[in-house]
Design brief:
heteropentamer; A: mainly alpha; MetI-like fold; B: alpha/beta; five-stranded mixed beta sheet; 10 helices; 37% helix; 26% strand; binds adenosine-5'-triphosphate; binds magnesium ion
Chain lengths: 217, 242, 222, 242, 242
């Protein structure tokens, strides 16, 4: 029986590649967007503007406080009632961007806050403007602190793309899911799915570990 | 403007299905949507002269998808009930099935009484007609609901998660060949009457609703309907092709 | 839409949501307890010098960290029966959460242990304390201080992750939302209620984490 | 040149600066000392508005520092600040550290800024280290770079906050030498320090602070040999005994 | 009491201790000075085996320190060590810090250990702070607690590694006072420090290190006023000029 299922699994490998491609596409686009948004929010969150800081804080709390599945459902099924009608793919990207940017925002804010106050003061007393201080002095140094957890967060985000399968995006997990319905050999199907995720995530984990060691010096 | 003219203007008919429910709608080995209902809706799109877009959902995503305007037609093995009809409109039934009880061959359950016991767990599909019927006919048994199509119950049964399953007989019968031979047995007695299956649309889409009815009338008379049913429901020929 | 928002339905389903809430809390508490044990053992193996237990621990941690929880859940859910193990959904789900969180907790604990200043250890060594005494009196109490906030953070993650158990038919909070949707076709009401309850849990845990952060991390003495 | 008029500052309930009145004239070298927490750093940090004040007025070169409309960038270009912990930018070379402000605040061309930066580095005796990173330098060298950085905008005033107290004893001398040179060029300087040798050698005036107040002020010889107040006498005896 | 016989130590390729021969007799107070990185800390850390040596022998009270069979716990109980950065345990009160070793190494009863701990705290003048946490104390007070902790096992030898160089100038005195008291009680002491006042007042011998070697040794007066080597003369002039 195993052998029979295995040959059927081999037969449909293009389908798995399609899923892998979809997963990579979602991951790549959403990582880029949420990095950009996350940095902007992170700078705001570490600033002194109490009102903006609070607003970002509420946003972050909402995203961190609710499961990603629920967020996706809300974006996909409920936002249309308020006039935002999105297909599964853009909805998945939006959900990923919203979730990822909230987490990256916290990492960036943490990195900026970790820079010794003296660096701000030294830059201030040379007469640099706020933006110059950030761009020339603070962010380049904060990158050291930001980079390792950022790459770690990328891994988490890539893995979270599996959840967008619930709104019908044919990515890797959903491919596994519809396959297991045809080939009732879960161990085999999901080992394969797991191995494909591993092949994307593990290099990034290694990179994150490497950065952590390197930046620690 | 009416839903129908919107579809034509858009050039695309959007259909919500639940993959994993062979032979109604599932994904073949090339990763393409296929199945009896997929064929019907393809025919509808052809008749309208538009492209088709299949949207794939879990069972509990189907109705939200329709309500939130993601899809024009809900094409699932869904029975029109009065409660459901409060929110969406069902077209005339295109098919009817009966609810059956199935168990493992070796389990030795014979009658409904055998499975209507407190120590028996019965698997049903979340929100399906089977769920309602199981609650009604097997009040003593524990009901456990599953998502993701009729095969999930069979797998749960074989894995020992449940002692019996309740689902429509057609879905069970067509799924059986994918599982080890003679591992599953249907109890003789069917539950309830014939349960119709219908396509659904939003209340507002009256014109689309009429159009679907007309469509089925048409294909029934020109033989396309019978061909579809013969291929998908009455044989297992399709398994070779998909 | 907000005009349509049907609070009556929410109240009608409140008992169901409360059961779901209880179930989610139960799953969270049991899984985190088991995960803690798993994490401690995995971490102990990970930092030990014995290769026969060190490398399996590393493999376990790295595999878990580089595959999605959802895939792990499906893997166990569909896979355990293939191995002839009959594990009910709830237990399968708890097992998945335990294995998943355990790997992260192992890393949190490891970070906690390495965070204690070397100088502290040297001071202990210089006063003649042996390895176990240094662990017990100097490292662990301080490591605990720095570990508890991220552990609570992991608990928050776990509570949210438990939502994925809805996909294997475990009756918890998210699943209640889905049940309500499939019975009443009111997704907005269902999902916002679910989100609301998760937010409640989140704020409790967050408050606890912040409190412990303030309370337990001893500021450096110089 | 610098004038404090009835300046008051609180950190929450803590009254860190209590009715400070003080005039520093052009070319004057002022040494500030006092026990830890007495407000020395706060005092000089208010001069270039690294800290805000709640009452009173500080006037630098006829500009009210704590006025909303003051052009801070222009003000700060006239004031160089050197910190106890150097606070060099670790991700930039020595030359980049020194060039940063001329290029970005004065908008000088790179080549011109580099010329100025090298001049200042020569002044502190570190020309050959211009392409090293701060982490590759000893503490004394780092502090000299920090002084060059402070000088690079050609300020009229230099403020030093315990510039030698984070240094190994061997390196204190080289930093003090650079500062003595600055004095001989006629720079206006405010130095928080406990280096009595330096104070005796170059200071025009010593100011002793305690609990946010200026307790005593006088020439170095007067102050160290004949302190007028008990508190100052006690303090001096403490830093002298060991 | 302590004897170094041809001791050599490398960190990787760096030869940190180069043929060290040294005898310290009972009751002697030895001050070690030298430029940063010369191996001072490493030298005294070898005495209680916080660092291993690669060649040679160190003998403390007739026990070869770097022998496999040496009972380290017993050895370390005879030696108190005070670090530059105090290294108090931040999660314990002052009293708990001081009691930790007697209770756990000597296995004394709590009450007895407490008695000893309070005695030692009195010796450093901190009885009233016994229930405070380290973070609530000033630097000088923390270092005095660290000394009390070092004394709590009634050691015959006390090692100090720059005990005052992380302190504010005002607090250096209070720590040195405690150390001077120890000298007057006849404790054998090795002190790495640059506090010349202290060295002149109480040291029996000063040892000057550079690049892992003992360059010069002599009485404090001899050493500071008439250094024999150029390197020492240069070093002394540097720490004296300011
Ligand atoms: N940002 C701040 N917030 C609250 N309190 C502060 C802040 N900065 C300084 N203080 C407090 O103000 C008082 C004066 O601080 P300041 O740094 O001016 O003292 P100092 O004389 O420079 O001391 P030291 O010699 O230790 O540098 C201290 O009690 C300090 O704790
Ligand atoms: N654990 C270690 N690994 C590698 N090199 C080390 C280590 N500890 C010290 N060193 C190096 O050994 C040399 C001597 O160090 P040591 O700490 O003994 O110097 P020191 O005389 O105490 O200097 P300082 O006055 O700065 O404390 C230095 O060059 C230092 O960088
Ligand atoms: Mg200060
Ligand atoms: Mg040292």
């Amino acid at each position: 029986m195993m052998g029979f299922y295995f040959s059927r699994l081999v037969e449909i490998y293009p389908f798995f590649l399609k899923g892998l491609w979809m997963t990579s596409k979602i991951a790549f686009i959403s990582l880029v967007t949420c990095t950009l948004i996350g940095f902007v929010l992170g700078v705001i969150r570490s600033s002194n503007n109490i009102i903006l800081k609070r607003i970002v804080g509420v946003y972050v709390a909402f995203v961190r406080g609710t499961p990603f599945v629920v967020q996706i459902f809300i974006i996909f099924f409920i936002l249309p009632d308020w006039g935002l009608q999105l297909d599964a793919f853009p909805a998945a990207l939006l959900a990923m961007a919203i979730m990822g940017s909230a987490f990256i925002c916290e990492i960036v804010a943490g990195g900026i806050n970790s820079i010794h106050k003296g660096q701000w003061e030294a830059a201030t007393s040379s007469g640099l403007t706020m933006i110059q201080q950030l761009r020339l002095v603070i962010v380049p140094q904060a990158m050291k602190v930001i980079l390792p957890p950022l790459v770690g967060q990328y891994v988490l985000l890539i893995k979270d793309t599996s959840v967008v399968s619930v709104i019908g995006v044919m990515e890797l997990t959903r491919v596994g899911w519809v396959t297991v319905v045809r080939i009732p050999e879960g161990l085999m199907v999901f080992s394969l799915v797991g191995a494909l995720y591993f092949s994307i995530s593990y290099p990034l984990i290694l990179l994150s570990n490497y950065l952590e060691r390197k930046m620690a010096i | 403007s009416s839903t129908l003219s919107e579809i034509v203007k858009r050039g695309e008919l959007r259909v919500a299905v639940q993959s994993g429910a062979a032979p109604y709608a599932f994904i073949d080995k090339h990763g393409e949507h296929t199945g009896s209902m997929v064929d019907f809706t393809r025919g509808m799109a052809d008749a309208m002269g538009v492209k088709i877009k299949i949207l794939d959902f879990d069972w509990d995503g189907l109705i939200p998808a329709l309500l939130s305007g993601k899809a024009d037609i809900l094409a699932a093995d869904m029975t029109p009930t009065l409660k459901r009809a409060l929110k969406i409109s069902f077209a005339d039934p295109w098919m009817s099935v009966q609810t059956c009880v199935f168990t493992k061959t070796g389990a030795g359950y014979q009658s409904l009484e055998d499975v209507n016991k407190p120590d028996i767990t019965v698997g049903v599909l979340l929100g399906s007609t089977g769920e309602t019927i199981a609650k009604q006919y097997l009040p003593n048994a524990k009901i456990k609901s599953y998502k993701g199509g009729g095969r999930m119950i069979i797998q749960a049964l074989l894995a020992g998660h449940v002692d019996a399953g309740v689902n429509d007989d057609l879905a069970v019968l067509t799924a059986l060949p994918d599982f080890p031979p003679n591992s599953i047995r249907l109890l003789d007695k069917r539950l309830g009457g014939k349960a119709p299956l219908s396509f659904a649309v939003l209340h507002e889409s009256v014109n689309l609703w009429q159009w679907i009815n007309l469509y089925f009338e048409t294909i029934r008379s020109n033989g396309a309907y019978d061909k579809n049913i013969a291929y998908w429901m009455e044989g297992i020929e399709w398994k070779k092709d998909h | 839409m907000l005009v349509d928002f049907n609070f009556r339905i929410i109240f009608e389903y409140l008992p169901l949501f409360l059961t779901g809430l209880r179930s989610t809390c139960f799953i969270a508490v049991v899984s985190i307890a088991l995960a803690l044990a798993t994490g401690i053992i995995a971490c102990a193996c990970r930092i030990s010098g014995v290769k026969a237990i060190k490398y399996p621990a590393i493999a376990y941690i790295e595999i878990i960290r580089s595959t999605p929880l959802l895939v792990q859940i499906y893997f166990l859910y569909f896979g355990l029966p293939t191995l002839g193990l009959r594990v009910p959904e709830l237990q399968t789900g708890i097992l998945a959460l335990m294995l998943n969180s355990g790997a992260y907790i192992a890393e949190i604990i490891r970070a906690g242990i390495t965070s204690v200043d070397d100088g502290q250890l040297e001071a202990g060594t210089a006063s003649g304390l042996n390895y176990f005494q240094r662990m017990r009196f100097i490292i662990l109490p301080q490591a605990l201080g720095v570990t508890i906030p991220p552990l609570l953070g992991q608990n928050i993650v776990l509570v949210k992750d438990s939502a994925l158990l809805s996909l294997i038919s475990v009756m918890e909070l998210t699943r209640c939302g889905q049940t309500m949707t499939s019975e009443r076709f009111m997704p907005a009401e269902a999902f916002f209620t679910v989100a609301f309850f998760y937010m409640c849990i989140y704020f409790c845990l967050k408050a606890l984490a912040d409190w412990s952060q303030r309370k337990l991390i001893f500021r450096e003495a110089y | 040149m610098i004038e404090f008029k009835n300046v008051n500052k609180w950190f929450g309930k803590l009254h860190v600066l209590n009715n400070i009145d003080l005039k520093i004239s052009k070319g004057e070298v002022l040494v500030i000392c006092g026990p830890s927490g007495s407000g020395k750093s706060t005092l000089i940090r208010c001069i270039n508005r690294l800290e805000k004040i709640q009452k009173g007025e500080i006037i630098v070169n006829n500009t009210p520092v704590h006025d909303k409309h003051t052009n801070l960038t222009k003000l700060r270009a006239q004031i160089g600040f050197v910190f106890q912990q150097f606070h060099l930018y670790p991700h930039m070379t020595v030359l980049q550290n020194v060039m940063l402000a001329p290029v970005n605040v004065k908008k000088l061309a790179k080549s011109e800024a580099e010329k100025i930066a090298l001049e200042k580095l020569e002044q502190v005796g570190l020309t050959e280290k211009s392409s090293a990173y701060p982490a590759q330098l000893s503490g004394g060298q780092q502090q000299r770079v920090a002084i060059a950085r402070g000088l690079t905008m050609s300020p009229e005033i230099m403020l030093f906050d315990e510039p030698t107290s984070a240094l190994d004893p061997e390196m204190i001398g080289e930093v003090l030498d650079v500062m003595v040179n600055l004095v001989s060029e006629g720079m206006t300087m405010c130095v928080v320090t406990h280096e009595m040798g330096f104070a005796k050698k170059v200071a025009h005036r010593v100011l002793f602070m305690d609990e946010g107040k200026i307790v005593e002020t006088g020439t170095p010889d007067d102050f160290f040999d004949n302190p007028k107040t008990d508190r100052a006498a006690e303090f001096i005896s403490k830093i002298l005994t060991h």
